[in-house]
Design goal:
Helices cover about 75% and strands about 0% of the residues. The longest helix is centred in the C-terminal third of the chain and has 29 residues. The mean pLDDT is about 85.
Length: about 325
C-alpha cells in the first residue's frame, strides 16, 4: 500500500483534498489568510508556463495534419459537451432544488477545454496516439480562452434565472493567465532549451500547484456548505449527476472513435482527450465570472461541479487505462 500511494500520490491527495480542507476551510477560502485567490492565479500562470517549456514542436506539427481527429475532438469538447450539459440541467437538475451555483458551475464545466498533461499520458499508457492527444489538448486550451466564454454566454442567455455578464473581462483574464504564459514558455524553450533532466521536475511541480487549486476550491465549498442548512444530500446528488455526465461524454467519444476511425491509436486519443475537462482553466473562469457579476460569495458551490467531475474522470480514467493497457497495443 505505501508503494502504491508513493506511485499515485497525486490521485491520492486529490481524493483527500476535501478531508484536508475540512478542519479549517477558512484557511484556503477566497478571503482566507492564505490569500488563495492570488496564489491560484500564480499557480495557473506557472502551470501553463511550464507546459509551454515542455512543448515538442516536431511532435505538435506532426499531429496537426490529423484533421479528422482534430475536428472530432474539438467538436466533442466544445459542441457536444455544452449541448448535453444544457439538456442535463433541464432534466436531471429539474428533479431537485439545486443551488444556482451548481447550474452555473455545470455550464462552466461543459465549456471547458480538455486537460493537457493527463490526457496525453493516459493516451500513451494505453497505446494511443500521444501526439494527437497533446496537440488537441493544447489547441483546445488556446481556443478555449475565446470559445469557452462565448459558449458560457450562450448557455447563460438561455436561462433567465442566471445573471448576465460581459465576456471581455473573462477573456482578458484567461489570456493573461493561460495564453501568454504558455507562449512565453514556448519561446523560452526555443531560446534556452532545457534538457529532459530538468523538465522532468515540471510535472510534479504542476501537480502540486493543481492540488492547491483544488484544495482551495474545496475550502470555499465547505465554508458555503456550513452556512446553508443541510446541503449534503444535494451535493451527493450532484456527484451522481457528474458521474452520469462523464459517462455520457465517454460514450460519445467511444462511439465517435469506433464508427468514424479505423486507427486504434486515434480512437484511444479521442477517448482519453475529448471527455476530459481541466480544473486549471475552470477555477479561473469561475473566479472571473463571479468577480464580474459580484457573486464571489457563491464561489464554492460554483466550482463544486468541476471538482466532483474531476474526481469522476480520474476514477474512470484509472479503470479504463488499467483495462486497455493490459490489451494488445495498436500498431
Amino acid at each position: 500500500m505505501p508503494e502504491y500511494i508513493k506511485k499515485n500520490w497525486f490521485i491520492t491527495l486529490l481524493f483527500l483534498s476535501p478531508l484536508l480542507a475540512w478542519p479549517w476551510p477558512e484557511l484556503g477560502s477566497y478571503k482566507g489568510p492564505l490569500r488563495a485567490n492570488l496564489i491560484n492565479k500564480i499557480a495557473v500562470t506557472l502551470i501553463f508556463f511550464m507546459n509551454g517549456i515542455t512543448l515538442n514542436k516536431n511532435l505538435i506539427f506532426s499531429a496537426a495534419s490529423k484533421t479528422k481527429a482534430l475536428i472530432a475532438i474539438q467538436s466533442l469538447c466544445f459542441l457536444a459537451a455544452p449541448i448535453f450539459a444544457y439538456a442535463f440541467t433541464k432534466t436531471y437538475f429539474k428533479l431537485y432544488t439545486f443551488p444556482q451555483g451548481f447550474i452555473t458551475g455545470t455550464y462552466i464545466l461543459a465549456c471547458l477545454p480538455t486537460t493537457i498533461a493527463s490526457c496525453a499520458i493516459l493516451t500513451e499508457m494505453t497505446g494511443g496516439n500521444k501526439a494527437i492527444s497533446l496537440f488537441n489538448a493544447l489547441l483546445s486550451n488556446t481556443l478555449g480562452v475565446i470559445i469557452a466564454p462565448l459558449l458560457l454566454k450562450t448557455l447563460i442567455s438561455q436561462n433567465d434565472s442566471l445573471l448576465n455578464f460581459n465576456i471581455k473581462p473573462m477573456v482578458t483574464e484567461l489570456i493573461v493567465l493561460i495564453v501568454i504564459p504558455m507562449c512565453l514558455g514556448f519561446v523560452t524553450h526555443i531560446k534556452f532549451p532545457l534538457s529532459q533532466k530538468y523538465q522532468k521536475y515540471f510535472t510534479p511541480i504542476s501537480k502540486t500547484l493543481l492540488l492547491f487549486i483544488v484544495y482551495s476550491a474545496f475550502c470555499n465549498t465547505i465554508v458555503e456548505a456550513k452556512a446553508i442548512p443541510s446541503p449534503w444530500d444535494e451535493i451527493l446528488l450532484l456527484f451522481l449527476g457528474m458521474g452520469i455526465l462523464h459517462i455520457w461524454y465517454l460514450f460519445l467519444a467511444w462511439a465517435t472513435g469506433k464508427y468514424f476511425f479505423d486507427n486504434k491509436g486515434e480512437t484511444l486519443a479521442i477517448l482519453f482527450t475529448a471527455p476530459q475537462k481541466t480544473v486549471a482553466v475552470g477555477i479561473p473562469m469561475c473566479i472571473a465570472l463571479l468577480s464580474e457579476t459580484g457573486s464571489m460569495q457563491t464561489l464554492g458551490f460554483t466550482t463544486l461541479p468541476l471538482l466532483l467531475y474531476n474526481n469522476v474522470q480520474w476514477i474512470a480514467a484509472g479503470i479504463l487505462s488499467h483495462y486497455l493497457s493490459n490489451r494488445k497495443r495498436p500498431t
